Predict the 3D structure of the following.
Amino acid sequence: MCEPRHFEVRYAINPWMDTDTPVDTALAREQWARLVQVYRDHGHTVETVSPVEGLPDMVFAANAAVVVDGRVLGSSFHAPERRPESAAYELWFKNSGFDVHPPGSVCEGEGDLVPCGPYILAGTGFRTEWAAHREAQEFFGRPTISLQLVDPRFYHLDTALFFLGEEGDGEGQDDGDGNGTGRRAGNIAYYPPAFSPGSREVLRRLYPRAVIASEDDALAFGLNSVSDGRHVFIDPQAQGLVDQLADRGYVPVPVDLSEFRKAGGGIKCCTQEIRS
Ligand code: ARG
């Protein structure tokens, strides 16, 4: 994670950003510090990357890389304003003992490449390019499923979908063929209208028991959540989704990151998951 010391809205690269709407920077820092504390209180280790002046979106650590099996695919940002972030994060990974594979095309890390058990779900349409999906598949050796995003408010896959975990609510997506692959696929929550008709169909087939979010919950960044398989760290404004998750046996943990919404980000955007 990266402290929002230099966080502000200085440019607009998604429909949430408006340079005329001031960010309450003190509140943003408080909200971020609380997220860190909540993760630690739930037994998760949090490491931080030093923020760099002049890179206000660097707080959105999820976009800097994807880490699966301890292998790191770096980032290459669409917006020129964010491009220098890649090197700053790469340095952190290298200093922490990871090799970083630089992508050959636009690739915004976990913003668009979402590891889901045996698969990687991959978004395209606004930021990450199709070519990066192929590259991720080669690099990680995991089936990488391309999904077309169609609504600019949900410009990154992680604003429209998140992984609940491999076991999830105990009603995993077992396909009944007895080899267990279905169960291992786990479950997701998503907002179908953010996807093209074909991609919606792909998600419906892969996750017939997915949690379906309403537009209001998606707009409250309820899908920009982090799940450890039991606790779901989620924006409390996504009340409908919070209730659905509780009904399925998850433990929703509310964390309000409202100031970050002004930049088009939420809990997941602020969190890079290191899967060793
Ligand atoms: N302002 C940032 C951008 O538009 C927000 C990134 C949010 N991160 C995310 N994982 N969706 O790039």
About this structure: The mean pLDDT is 94.
